[in-house]
Protein backbone atom coordinates (compact mmCIF):
# COMPACT_ATOMS: atom_id res chain seq x y z
CA UNK A 1 0.00 0.00 0.00
CA UNK A 2 2.80 2.46 0.89
CA UNK A 3 4.46 1.78 -2.46
CA UNK A 4 1.20 2.71 -4.22
CA UNK A 5 0.84 5.90 -2.14
CA UNK A 6 4.45 6.87 -2.90
CA UNK A 7 3.94 6.20 -6.63
CA UNK A 8 0.74 8.23 -6.67
CA UNK A 9 2.44 11.13 -4.88
CA UNK A 10 5.34 10.96 -7.36
CA UNK A 11 2.86 10.96 -10.27
CA UNK A 12 0.99 13.96 -8.80
CA UNK A 13 4.24 15.89 -8.46
CA UNK A 14 5.33 15.03 -11.99
CA UNK A 15 2.02 16.33 -13.38
CA UNK A 16 2.46 19.58 -11.41
CA UNK A 17 6.05 19.93 -12.66
CA UNK A 18 4.93 19.34 -16.26
CA UNK A 19 2.37 22.14 -15.89
CA UNK A 20 5.02 24.43 -14.38
CA UNK A 21 7.38 23.60 -17.24
CA UNK A 22 4.72 24.56 -19.79
CA UNK A 23 4.35 27.95 -18.10
CA UNK A 24 8.12 28.45 -18.06
CA UNK A 25 8.35 27.54 -21.77
CA UNK A 26 5.72 30.19 -22.54
CA UNK A 27 7.66 32.78 -20.51
CA UNK A 28 10.87 31.88 -22.41
CA UNK A 29 9.05 32.24 -25.75
CA UNK A 30 7.68 35.62 -24.66
CA UNK A 31 11.24 36.70 -23.75
CA UNK A 32 12.54 35.65 -27.19
CA UNK A 33 9.69 37.49 -28.93
CA UNK A 34 10.31 40.63 -26.90
CA UNK A 35 14.03 40.44 -27.68
CA UNK A 36 13.10 40.59 -31.37
CA UNK A 37 10.79 43.56 -30.67
CA UNK A 38 13.64 45.44 -28.94
CA UNK A 39 15.85 44.82 -31.97
CA UNK A 40 13.11 46.18 -34.28
CA UNK A 41 12.75 49.25 -32.04
CA UNK A 42 16.47 49.91 -32.36
CA UNK A 43 16.11 49.99 -36.15
CA UNK A 44 12.88 52.05 -36.04
CA UNK A 45 12.93 54.70 -33.27
CA UNK A 46 9.28 55.61 -33.97
CA UNK A 47 8.33 52.08 -32.88
CA UNK A 48 10.35 52.29 -29.66
CA UNK A 49 7.56 53.96 -27.67
CA UNK A 50 5.36 50.85 -28.03
CA UNK A 51 7.94 48.22 -27.03
CA UNK A 52 7.44 48.31 -23.28
CA UNK A 53 3.71 47.50 -23.45
CA UNK A 54 4.09 43.96 -24.85
CA UNK A 55 6.92 43.36 -22.37
CA UNK A 56 4.77 44.72 -19.53
CA UNK A 57 1.91 42.41 -20.51
CA UNK A 58 4.29 39.42 -20.60
CA UNK A 59 5.58 40.49 -17.18
CA UNK A 60 2.00 40.62 -15.89
CA UNK A 61 1.37 37.09 -17.19
CA UNK A 62 4.60 35.90 -15.57
CA UNK A 63 3.63 37.38 -12.20
CA UNK A 64 0.21 35.70 -12.42
CA UNK A 65 1.90 32.41 -13.30
CA UNK A 66 4.35 32.67 -10.41
CA UNK A 67 1.54 33.42 -7.96
CA UNK A 68 -0.52 30.54 -9.35
CA UNK A 69 2.37 28.07 -9.15
CA UNK A 70 3.10 29.12 -5.58
CA UNK A 71 -0.56 28.65 -4.61
CA UNK A 72 -0.73 25.27 -6.37
CA UNK A 73 2.26 24.06 -4.38
CA UNK A 74 1.19 25.56 -1.05
CA UNK A 75 4.01 28.09 -1.06
CA UNK A 76 3.56 31.63 0.19
CA UNK A 77 4.78 34.19 -2.34
CA UNK A 78 5.93 37.77 -1.95
CA UNK A 79 6.72 40.27 -4.70
CA UNK A 80 9.29 43.05 -4.31
CA UNK A 81 9.29 46.14 -6.51
CA UNK A 82 12.42 47.07 -8.45
CA UNK A 83 14.76 49.67 -6.97
CA UNK A 84 17.09 51.73 -9.14
CA UNK A 85 19.55 54.59 -8.93
CA UNK A 86 18.00 56.11 -12.05
CA UNK A 87 16.20 59.42 -11.70
CA UNK A 88 15.82 62.62 -13.74
CA UNK A 89 18.06 64.73 -11.51
CA UNK A 90 21.16 62.49 -11.41
CA UNK A 91 24.57 63.87 -10.58
CA UNK A 92 27.36 63.53 -13.15
CA UNK A 93 28.79 60.61 -11.13
CA UNK A 94 25.41 58.86 -11.07
CA UNK A 95 25.08 59.34 -14.84
CA UNK A 96 28.58 57.94 -15.41
CA UNK A 97 27.74 54.85 -13.34
CA UNK A 98 24.35 54.36 -15.01
CA UNK A 99 25.08 55.03 -18.68
CA UNK A 100 25.19 51.32 -19.62
CA UNK A 101 21.47 50.89 -18.86
CA UNK A 102 20.54 53.02 -21.87
CA UNK A 103 22.49 50.60 -24.08
CA UNK A 104 20.22 47.79 -22.84
CA UNK A 105 17.07 49.50 -24.15
CA UNK A 106 17.98 51.07 -27.49
CA UNK A 107 15.78 53.89 -28.68
CA UNK A 108 14.89 55.04 -25.16
CA UNK A 109 15.79 58.15 -23.29
CA UNK A 110 16.31 58.18 -19.54
CA UNK A 111 12.73 59.45 -19.18
CA UNK A 112 11.49 56.47 -21.25
CA UNK A 113 13.46 53.95 -19.17
CA UNK A 114 12.06 55.47 -15.97
CA UNK A 115 8.54 55.26 -17.39
CA UNK A 116 9.14 51.58 -18.17
CA UNK A 117 10.44 50.85 -14.66
CA UNK A 118 7.47 52.68 -13.16
CA UNK A 119 5.08 50.69 -15.39
CA UNK A 120 6.65 47.38 -14.36
CA UNK A 121 6.56 48.31 -10.66
CA UNK A 122 2.93 49.39 -10.95
CA UNK A 123 2.12 46.12 -12.70
CA UNK A 124 3.72 44.26 -9.80
CA UNK A 125 1.66 46.25 -7.29
CA UNK A 126 -1.54 45.52 -9.25
CA UNK A 127 -0.77 41.82 -9.52
CA UNK A 128 0.13 41.56 -5.83
CA UNK A 129 -3.35 42.92 -5.04
CA UNK A 130 -5.11 40.83 -7.69
CA UNK A 131 -3.32 37.60 -6.78
CA UNK A 132 -3.39 38.20 -3.00
CA UNK A 133 0.41 38.10 -2.83
CA UNK A 134 2.42 39.90 -0.18
CA UNK A 135 4.09 43.03 -1.59
CA UNK A 136 7.33 44.62 -0.50
CA UNK A 137 7.17 48.04 -2.16
CA UNK A 138 10.92 48.58 -1.98
CA UNK A 139 10.88 51.15 -4.78
CA UNK A 140 8.75 53.52 -2.75
CA UNK A 141 11.04 56.20 -1.29
CA UNK A 142 14.23 54.13 -1.76
CA UNK A 143 17.22 56.52 -1.78
CA UNK A 144 18.64 57.17 -5.24
CA UNK A 145 22.24 57.88 -4.36
CA UNK A 146 25.69 56.30 -4.56
CA UNK A 147 25.60 55.43 -0.87
CA UNK A 148 22.93 52.84 -1.72
CA UNK A 149 23.83 51.87 -5.33
CA UNK A 150 27.07 50.84 -7.01
CA UNK A 151 25.49 51.61 -10.38
CA UNK A 152 21.99 51.73 -11.90
CA UNK A 153 20.66 48.57 -10.23
CA UNK A 154 23.22 46.87 -7.97
CA UNK A 155 23.24 47.89 -4.32
CA UNK A 156 26.13 48.77 -2.07
CA UNK A 157 26.29 46.98 1.30
CA UNK A 158 24.30 49.86 2.78
CA UNK A 159 21.66 49.62 0.02
CA UNK A 160 21.41 45.83 0.39
CA UNK A 161 20.99 46.22 4.15
CA UNK A 162 18.22 48.79 3.65
CA UNK A 163 16.45 46.54 1.13
CA UNK A 164 16.79 43.54 3.46
CA UNK A 165 15.38 45.52 6.38
CA UNK A 166 12.37 46.58 4.29
CA UNK A 167 11.72 42.98 3.24
CA UNK A 168 12.12 41.76 6.84
CA UNK A 169 9.75 44.44 8.15
CA UNK A 170 7.01 43.43 5.70
CA UNK A 171 7.52 39.73 6.49
CA UNK A 172 7.36 40.47 10.23
CA UNK A 173 4.20 42.57 9.84
CA UNK A 174 2.61 39.77 7.80
CA UNK A 175 3.48 37.21 10.49
CA UNK A 176 5.82 35.27 8.21
CA UNK A 177 8.77 35.93 10.54
CA UNK A 178 9.22 36.33 14.26
CA UNK A 179 12.31 36.88 16.40
CA UNK A 180 13.33 33.22 15.94
CA UNK A 181 12.96 33.13 12.14
CA UNK A 182 10.34 31.90 9.65
CA UNK A 183 6.87 31.08 10.89
CA UNK A 184 5.35 28.00 9.25
CA UNK A 185 2.11 28.55 7.35
CA UNK A 186 -0.93 26.67 8.57
List the helices and strands and how they pair.
Layout lengths: L1 H42 L8 H21 L5 E3 L11 H7 L1 H5 L5 H21 L3 E3 L20 H17 L3 E2 L2 E2 L4
Parallel strand pairs: 1-2
Antiparallel strand pairs: 3-4
Short description:
The protein is mainly alpha-helical and 186 residues long.
Word description of this protein:
With 186 residues, the protein is mostly helical. It contains 6 helices and 4 strands; from the N terminus they run H-H-E-H-H-H-E-H-E-E. A two-stranded parallel ribbon has the order 1-2. Strands 3-4 form a two-stranded antiparallel ribbon. Strand 3 and strand 4 form a beta hairpin. Helix 1 (2-43) runs antiparallel to helix 2 and helix 2 packs parallel to helix 5 (110-130). The chain is globular, with a radius of gyration of 20 Å. The model has no long low-confidence stretch (mean pLDDT 81).
Descriptive keywords:
mainly alpha; single chain; 4 strands; two-stranded parallel ribbon; 186 residues; 61% helix; 6 helices; two-stranded antiparallel ribbon; globular
The helix content, as a percent range, equals: 55-70%
Which consecutive residue ranges, at least 5 long each, have pLDDT under 50? none
Q: In sequence order, what are the helices and strands, one letter per element? A: HHEHHHEHEE
Main sheet attributes: strand count, strand direction, barrel closure: 2 strands, parallel
Q: What portion of residues belong to β-strands?
A: 5-15%
Q: Please count the beta strands (DSSP E, at least 2 residues each).
A: 4
Mean of all residue-level pLDDT scores: 81
Shape: globular
Question: Given the helix and strand composition, which structural class is it?
Answer: mainly alpha
- The helix tally amounts to 6
**Gyration radius, in Å:** 20 Å
Amino acid sequence: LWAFVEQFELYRRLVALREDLAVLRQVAEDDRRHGREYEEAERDPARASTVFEPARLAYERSLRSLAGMARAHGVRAAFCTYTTLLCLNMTEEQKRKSVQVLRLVPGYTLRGVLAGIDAFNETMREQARAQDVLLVDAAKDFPKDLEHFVEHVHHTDKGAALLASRVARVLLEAGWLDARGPVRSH
